[in-house]
Amino acid sequence: MIIRKSSLILFTTIFINTFLIFSQEWNVNYDESKVETYSLPSILTSHSGMIINNVNDWEEFRRPEILYSFTNHVYGNIPGKLDSVIVKITEHGNYLNSLAKRKQVTLTFIKNGKELSTDLLIYLPNSIKKAPVFLGYNFQGNHTVIDDKNIFITKSWVPANEALGVTSNQATEKSRGEMSRRWSVEKIINAGYGLVTLYRGDIDPDKDDFSDGIHQLFYLKDQKKPEADEWGTIAAWSWGLSRVMDYIEADEDIDHEKVIVFGHSRLGKAALWAAATDKRFAGCISNNSGEMGAALSKRNFGETIEVINTAFPHWFCGNFKKYSKKEYMLPVDQHMLISLIAPRPVYIASATDDLWADPKGEFLSAKEASVAYNLYGISGLITTTMPQPDSPIIGVVSYHLRTGVHDVTDYDWEQYIKFAKFNNF
Predict the structure, then answer these.
(1) The 4-O-methyl-glucuronoyl methylesterase-like domain covers which part of the protein (predicted)?
(2) pTM tops 0.85, yes or no
C-alpha cells in the first residue's frame, strides 16, 4: 500500500488547526480537573421509575423509550419510505492478483418523482463463498479508498481540498488512492473479510444545505428543509447505511448476517445510530466518534453540543439546538446509545492525542453501557479501569486507546479484525 506522506501531513495539520480554532472560540475544556460533577440518566430505569432487570422488559419497554428519546431530541424522524430502488451492477473485476473480486453497484432511490443515486464499492475475498463484511462510508469518494484505476471517480459534491486536487468541489484523478492509508483493504481481504464502502456525499453532502441530498426527495410541497423533529445529516447517513443493508441482503456473495457497520469521526456517529436503529447490523465499530458519538456529552470535555450545533447545525435535528449549553437537560446520553446495540458486539476506539473526541468519555460510555449487555448474560466491557495506550480489550464490548491522533490506522484495523474473529464473524 502506498502512503502519501504529504497528504497525511496536510490532513493532520488541517484537523489540528481547525479544532484549535474551535477550542479557542468556544473555550473548550481539556482539563480533567475541570470536569464538573454530572449525573447520567439511568439505562435501566424507565420514565415511570420502573427498574429493568430482565431482557423482556428491556426489549418491550425501556429500549423503545430510549430509542424514542434519541429520535425526537437528537437525530430526528425519517419522514416516510422510498417509492422504489433501482439496483445496477456497473462494473466488476478481480483485484490483488485475483485474491479478491471487485464489484461496483449503483443504487438509485426514487421518491415523489425525484431520484438520487449512490455508488457502492465492494471488495470480497475469492476464497470465501459468502463473505462477512465491514460496511462504512468514506470521506472523499470511493476512488480515494484504494489506488485502483477501475474505481469510478465520484461526480457528487466534494469538499474543497488542495491536497486531493479538489478546488471547485469536483473530485479529480489526483485524489485516486489518496485515503488508502485509512482502509487496510489487503489486510481485510487476507483475513477473510470483505469491504463495502460508499461516499457520504452521495447520500448527503456535509454542509448546511438540505437541497442537494436525500432530504429533498421527501419534502412536501414548498418545503425547503427538514422540520424540527425530522432527520439531520447524521440520521440521513445512518439511513443510507440501512439502504445498503437492503442491497446486501440480496447479494449472494455476502453473508448478510455478518455485516459490521464501521465509521470514523462524524461517520462513527452515523455508524452507531445505524446500529442502534437497525438490528440487521451484526456489530458496530466506532472510531474516534467523540461528542454525540461514543463520548458522554454531560462531561463537557472536548467537543460539546454547543460546538456541534454552531459549527455543524445540519448534523442533528432542529430540536437538538435547545440543548446547547444545557447538556444536563438532555434526557439521554451516549452510554444509552451504545446500550441500544446490545446484545450485538460493539467496538469503541479512541486516540491519545484526540482530546477533542474525549477518549475518557468514550471509555466511560462503553463501560456504562455494559449493564444492558449484562441483561443478556454478557459481561460487557471486562474492565472498570481505562486501559493504557495500545492495550486493547477485545470482547463483545471492546475498547482501545491508540497512541496517536484523530485517524484510522493499520493498528486500528488489526484490532477490528481480531474483534470480528472473536465474535465469530
Answers:
(1) 194-377
(2) yes
Pairing of strands 254-264, 283-287: parallel
Residues with Cβ within 8 Å of residue 210, at least 6 apart in sequence: 204, 216, 224, 225, 226, 314
pLDDT band (50, 70, 90) for residue 27: confident
Segment holding 116, helix H or strand E: strand 114-125
Confidence at residue 1, expressed as pLDDT on a 0 to 100 scale: 41
Please identify which of the residues 7, 180, 265, 365 carries the catalytic annotation: 265
Residue 166 DSSP label: B
Q: Indicate the pairing of strand 100-111 with strand 84-95.
A: antiparallel
pLDDT at position 2: 44
Q: What is the pLDDT of residues 96-121, one digit of tens each?
A: 889 999 999 999 999 999 999 999 99
Residue 23 falls in the annotated catalytic set: no
- Compute how many other C-beta atoms are within 10 angstroms of the C-beta atom of residue 95: 19
Instruction: Extract the C-alpha cell encoding 51.
Output: 427498574
Active site residue 406: yes
Distance, in Å, from the CA atom of 229 to the CA atom of 210, rounded to the nearest integer, reads 15
| Axis-axis angle for helices 63-70, 266-277 (nearest 10) | 140
What confidence score (pLDDT) does residue 163 get? Answer: 84
CA distance 294 to 398: 12
Average pLDDT over residues 320-340: 97
Q: CB burial class (10 A; 0-12, 13-18, 19+) of residue 253?
A: middle
What is the pLDDT at residue 4?
Answer: 53
Total domains in the chain come to 1
Cα separation, 95 vs 311, in Å, equals: 40
Q: Which domain range does residue 319 map to?
A: 5-422
Chain centroid to CA 130: 24
CA distance 176 to 34: 44
Element (H, E) at 309: helix 305-311
User: What is the per-residue pLDDT for 96?
Assistant: 87
- What CATH number should be reported for the domain holding residue 409? 3.40.50.1820
